[in-house]
Write a structure and sequence with these properties.
This protein has 115 residues and is mainly α. It contains four helices and no strands.
Length: 115
């Protein structure tokens, strides 16, 4: 029987993935005392990595939460300006004078706002 040296699976990762994996495991070092005392050190270290990744996700959620409302306001302003422009252009083209034409123009503007 020929014993073949087992290749390290991490060698098949892209350079970016290798760096990311190294960074994740580096972030677990602060939990070293916990995972080294575990029955299955490798699994415990993975759980510690999971904890660190969860913390990063929560931090990103906080940042996104702070940015979300101002972006919504910007989009809202943009939509209002878009509607005004469409109304102006349609009014120049159709020149609604009577109520049925004005109503049709209003419906056309609302329809165009969906695009």
């Amino acid at each position: 029987m020929v014993l073949r040296k087992r290749e390290d699976w991490k060698e098949f990762l892209s350079d970016d993935a290798k760096k990311t994996l190294a960074d994740v495991f580096d972030s677990t070092k602060k939990h070293r005392g916990a995972y080294l005392g575990a029955g299955d050190v490798k699994v415990a270290q993975l759980w510690c990595a999971f904890v660190e990744l969860k913390k990063e996700v929560e931090e990103l959620k906080k940042v996104l939460g702070k940015v979300q409302e101002p972006l919504r306001a910007i989009v809202s302003i943009g939509d209002a300006e878009k509607k005004k422009t469409i109304e102006r252009v349609i009014a120049e083209i159709i020149k609604p004078t009577d109520e049925p034409t004005q109503e049709a123009t209003k419906k056309l503007v609302e329809s165009l706002m969906k695009f």
